[in-house]
Amino acid sequence: MRLSTVILPVRRWHEGGRDEWLRAEELGFHTAYTYDHLSWRTFRDGPWFGAVPTLTAAAAATSRMRLGTLVTSPNFRHPVTLAKDLITLDDVSNGRITLGIGAGGNGFDATALGQDTWTPRERADRFGEFVPLLDRLLTEDSVTYEGTFYSAVEARNLPGCVQRPRIPFAVAATGPRGLRLAAKHGQAWVTTGDPKLFETGTPEQSIEAIRGQIKKLGEACDEIGRDVDELDKILLTGFTPHPGRPLESLDAFVDFAGRHFELGFTEIVLHAPIPDSDFAADPKVFERIATEGLAQLR
What we know:
- By secondary structure, the chain is an alpha/beta fold.
- The protein has helices at residues 17-26, 51-61, 79-92, 120-139, 176-185, 203-223, 250-261, 283-292, and strands at residues 2-6, 31-34, 66-72, 97-101, 142-146, 151-156, 169-172, 188-191, 232-236, 267-271.
- It contains eight helices and ten strands.
């Protein structure tokens, strides 16, 4: 069982940003992730910094904690340039990077480069091409590829990743095509639960919906002869019914995490508190959960 956190890139590095990553390492979090967006929902009109530079700075400032995106998507990324950034991040961090990756959505990133919003089918089509190509770019010295959406011409990626054969992929997916990508290319699978239940569902309905997602992940693994237990299973909290409940108290966290660990999750991810936002929480409770929460589950 692992406990991790998400640090949204909303603070200037020298005005609290660096301290937050250092504190996450001091608290013992397994991984500190950040969102890879150009802007995001209610934070659109406020500060928001880039994921890759932020993680590079965090890699230089920390020494033990793993780091990663949760998640990167094709919305504004290309596999060739992303692979180069990831190899560099993996090198700077000395092998502590995890790539959380998903198909993307129809938020601000979807149109920031001037393109029309992709349909769900086109997002799935692009994701289905993006992930295998990125896999090759991170494992092969030179890649040439001509696809429907992406191309690479003798793309060089020497010296490759510190982590071999490449950095781990944590694939966010709930649909059948995404789950097949997770089964084939993922070292981990990520879910936020069922978005249809976020506002009106109950915790019990959420548990059953997630149980169904895990069953479908198992079926996707069975199709290719892979043991589903080989994949870590990561729950990004904050998007299930009663999203603030895990951070209301230590007891609330223990109850929430215990129910989800019973489903087979190996990692729970909590958002670091941000005042006056959807992720507002008592920092003292957050830190107590970080230092005491897992011990109460064992």
